[in-house]
Amino acid sequence: MPNLSSSLAGLHNQQLNVLAPSGIRGFDKKISSVDGLIKLTIGEPDLDTPEHVKQASVDSILNNDSHYADQTGKKELRDAIVNHLANKYDLKYDADSEVIVTVGATEALYSTFASILNKGDKVIVPTPTFALYFPIISILGGEVIKVDTSDDGFILQPEKLQAVLDENGDSVKAILLNYPSNPTGVEYSKDDLSKLAAIIKEHQMYVLSDEIYSDLTYGVEHHSIASMLPEQTIYISGLSKSHAMTGYRVGYICGPQEIIKKIGMVHAFVVTSVTNSAQVAAAEALKNGENDPVEMAKIYQERRDILRDGLTKLGFSMPEPKGAFYMFAKIPAEYGLDDEKFALDLAYEAKVGVIPGNAFGPGGEGYIRLSYASSKEVIEEALKRIEKFLK
């Protein structure tokens, strides 16, 4: 195994020196060696990719669909994305100039930020939230403004947004919204979004709207800020959660043609194009699998109710998840805000794995995130172990 030349020591992107490893993956790895651990840690659907979607991928391979696809994505998939968004959320995009197919929503986020950020630009991120956003912004030279929403039901209030904009002026390049939320499961209502849109409209800034969980909601209708502010919104989503296709790595970006063209340049430099068979599977999912997320949502809602009711009986409190498949529960008072210690104790003593809330930024301290993308039987056993632990 070669060792790096001593003359090259330290010759790398210095931004990497200030990046912390993923709190989610890091904690999951730390406790994974616990024998018999029930893992409610990672947002990984335990449901199978629908059969018709898998078969489409297989057929693509067998039909020798093995040459470069269009860099913005296969035409059939871009058309399917446009039709899906129009039919379900009344969002209007042109498949040829306003859509890019990406390697998951993660690449969508990276390519978008790489296209809009200059060194020192600021991005407003309501917290607690999916912590991957922070390092992407930082490595590209941007500055994250974390806005704690824990005192406001985990919803960014318009007064708080206005105050941040007043304080930071023209240095704010964008705001990133994620709803339904990872880690809280909280969903923004149409009224919530309208109030934020009215403020954002008065400023020269983008909205990055990460709506990867939009197809998994419970008893509420999902609305997109892109319908209220189309000229400033960059819409990001994908198939990972809606159709249990995390390993296929298919996401997409939609937005005004001018900025999509710039994002497409970065995307092309980074990945060239997305794997053909995965794109064909995604097109099948959107064209003929509109009901697949509906059925999955019913399963997740049943699990949510079991976990919520069980935790509530044990004395936990949490915002009601109206989407995604996470629960953000406040830890017992005797632990104070030390969610790391509580999560470690729970793993080593009760053999239940959860993620400490501090991994999701300010406002997450004193909470734990539990994923209910696991079977009812697993969740019920986890509740029994938690109850025994608390006693």
From TrEMBL:
Top class in the EC scheme: transferase
EC number(s) per entry: 2.6.1.-
GO molecular function, one term: transaminase activity
A UniProt-annotated Pfam family: Aminotran_1_2
Domain of life, per lineage: Bacteria
Keywords for the protein's UniProt record, in alphabetical order: Aminotransferase, Pyridoxal phosphate, Transferase
Cofactor(s) listed: pyridoxal 5'-phosphate
Span of domain Aminotransferase class I/classII large: 37-386
Family per record: Belongs to the class-I pyridoxal-phosphate-dependent aminotransferase family.
Name of protein: Aminotransferase
Organism per entry: Apilactobacillus apinorum
